[in-house]
Design a protein that fits this description.
Blueprint (H helix, E strand, L loop, with lengths): L2 E5 L2 E3 L6 E5 L2 E9 L5 E8 L3 E2 L3 H7 L3 E11 L2 E4 L3 E5 L1
Parallel strand pairs: 2-9
Antiparallel strand pairs: 1-3, 3-6, 4-5, 4-7, 7-8, 7-9
């Protein structure tokens, strides 16, 4: 079982249009975003695909800029699997 956060990563100009990941873990997925101090600032549950467009509230949070870290979780065979952290910097 594996799961990998793909995009966004690294420096970004403005708020990303979507978050993408890949793997062999099944939905529903959970997207978790942490601030630069690794404190959770957003959680989106019940995602049915391997992409997620940020909601208006989520976009407003990201628009404050700075460094964020994120991961995604899914489930397979009754076991929850989490991707490694991905980092992005919004300028």
């Amino acid at each position: 079982m594996w799961l990998a956060a793909e995009s966004p990563d690294g420096p970004c100009e403005g708020v990303p249009r979507e978050f993408r990941w890949r793997g062999d873990v099944l939905p529903p997925y959970r997207l978790v975003v942490l601030d630069e101090s690794y404190e959770e600032v957003a959680r989106l549950d019940g995602i049915g695909a391997m992409t997620c467009a940020p909601s208006a509230d989520f976009s407003a949070l990201l628009a404050t800029g700075g460094t964020f870290h994120w991961f995604v979780e899914g489930q397979r065979a009754g076991r929850r699997t989490r991707s490694p952290l991905q980092s992005l910097e919004i300028r």
